[in-house]
Amino acid sequence: MPPEAADFEDPRPVSGYDFRLLLRLLPYARPHRALLAGSVVLVLGITLLDLSLPLLMRHAIDRYIAPAGGGAPAPEPAAALQGLSLTAAGFALLVLLQFVFSFAQSVLMEATGQRIMHDLRLRLYAHTQELSLDFFARNPVGRIVTRLTGDIQNLYELFTSFLSFLAKDLILIAGIAAVLLALDTRLALVTFLVLPAVAVAAVHFSRRAREIFRALRIQAAEINTRFAETIGGIRVIQVHRGEARNAERFDRLNLENYRTGMEQIRLLAVFLPLIEVLALAAVALVIGYGGSRVHEGALSLGALVAFLSYIRMFFRPLRDLAEKYNVLQNALASVERIFLLFDTPPALRAPPPGAGPRLDRFEVLSFEEVGFAYVPGEPVLRGVSFTLRRGGTLAVVGPTGAGKSSLLQLIPRLYDPTSGRILLNGIDLRDWPKAAFRGRLALVLQDPTLFSGTLRENLFHGLPPPTPAEEARIVAAARLERLLERLPAGLDSPVGEAGGAVSAGERQLIAIARAFARNPEIILFDEATSAVDSETELAIQEALERLLEERTAILVAHRLSTVRAADEILVLHRGRVLEVGPHAALMAQRGFYFHLHQAQVQTGGDRGP
Ligand code: GTP
Ligand code: MG
């Protein structure tokens, strides 16, 4: 399936492959088949108990309460009393057994559901982490989060509520039908006259319900998305006074959701009483026709009473069907989207682990006529070529939007080039195992992200716990002392998930420290464009210089001091390489770089040493 297919929430109807979707769930249930089998056995037991209760009732009535004239002679009053007590005790025993079985069955079923949900969420999370950045660009956070939480919860309900319905209620319905036919075939057939009406109602209901549930799910995901985006962009919204317009848009969405919800309620409000009416019609048929059968002597009174209680039992699951159908539809919509996510292939094609060349030592990285576009037809990089050897430093400069950050992202394969090749030690990056190269490099982003957690967790994210000496070394190297003095709990201070507690300059320092902690061979550094105070600026400069010692680096640089020190400078303009060479050579050319340099010197843009 092409990655485009992962734009889930497209409202096409699922019909036709509902069943196949359920089949795809089987592998997830398989590890828990022992639990499921236990559950099914218990269900059979419960059904047998359910079916036996009215029969016991018939026995009590026909034998001891109102014995039929023609049959066996009526028992003595004392014997009748004893028989009745025994029957009542038997009845109580069966009810008790039924309680125990039902309890055990629902515990088993819930446990199975929990386990399946647990597995599935784990796999989905792992899969999501591997997906391409394209995918995340196309699918808002709210949607993905709905997938990981709400949809899996729905699946859980599928297992606990719907599947136990299938097992329990369908067996029960079939069992009742069989017993009714055995008790009195003619009366049973007359009673079944209401069934076509039930079928018509159920089919109509299920058609409508499917549409409504689908719409509800899509709207819920949209609402989540809107919330997530609003919270993510709250600063911009508040500053630009966008609240009112946002609220209006949200209101429309919310209203739509409300209307669909009301439609669902209306549908249920018709369906439930309708089934009730049909059940009563069946009761009327049994009383009318069954009563006359009793008079004819074709049916015993006990059998008639048993018949009536079977009818109640027969319609209860049918009425519950509406509710179960909710669950099924919700779950199917969820299953569908969960599998859409699973079917989205991981970002990068890479040789299977273990295959492919082994990277012993980084020697050379080269771009050969690399072209790249986020959106087909809108190239961001065109024909970019350069070579960077071990220990070298390449600075990339150019106006904003030139494609500098995009170029950096190709190296750790956050994206793959659309044309041309990137070679590592002469071999295409795509032929290396994914982990081979990523482990060797550190990427300092233009706008570094901090995860919610402590400063220490942020620095050593994904690394084994550092020793105190190591911590001290990294703090010193990255010039974090000043920040640490300010933070009350030092490295244990929490830094907000959006880095709220630290400034932009400090965030850049933290990102540098993060790179230090990894001790990478290659540094990819995307210098922040935001201005910081000159003291932080100096700290960043020093930290960067230390980070670059003995290492290979590609620096996207705005500060001329950083640029000047590079072995080679790549001037990028609208995705093309305009000039390339060391500082002195480029200055001598008096081209684009020369003018860029002059402009910055004049405006005091170079605040470096
Ligand atoms: P500055 O950081 O401002 O100096 O610019 P830059 O040289 O780093 O530019 P960058 O590589 O970030 O962007 C180059 C072009 O790609 C711009 O026209 C951006 O609008 C576009 N672009 C950047 N990121 C994305 C993205 O995630 N999706 C899409 N569709 N376009 C992007
Ligand atoms: Mg950039």
Please characterize this protein's 3D structure.
The protein has 2 domains: 24-342, ABC transporter type 1, transmembrane domain (ABC transporter transmembrane region fold, Up-down Bundle); 364-603, P-loop containing nucleotide triphosphate hydrolases (Rossmann fold). The chain is α/β, with parallel strands linked by helices and 609 residues long. The strands form 3 sheets. The chain has a 6-stranded mixed β-sheet, with helices on both faces. Strands 2-1-4-5 form a 4-stranded antiparallel β-sheet, with helices on one face. The two termini are 54 Å apart. The longest helix has 54 residues, at 77-130. The chain has helices spanning 18-29, 33-65, 77-130, 133-138, 141-183, 185-191, 195-232, 234-239, 243-296, 301-343, 404-410, 434-438, 455-459, 468-477, 481-486, 504-518, 534-548, 560-564, 583-589, 592-603; strands spanning 364-375, 378-389, 393-397, 419-424, 427-428, 441-444, 453-454, 494-495, 522-526, 552-556, 568-573, 576-581. The chain is built from 20 helices and 12 strands. Mean pLDDT is 84; it is low at 1-14. Helices cover 63% and strands 11% of the residues. Residues 404-405, 446, 526 line the site of magnesium ion.
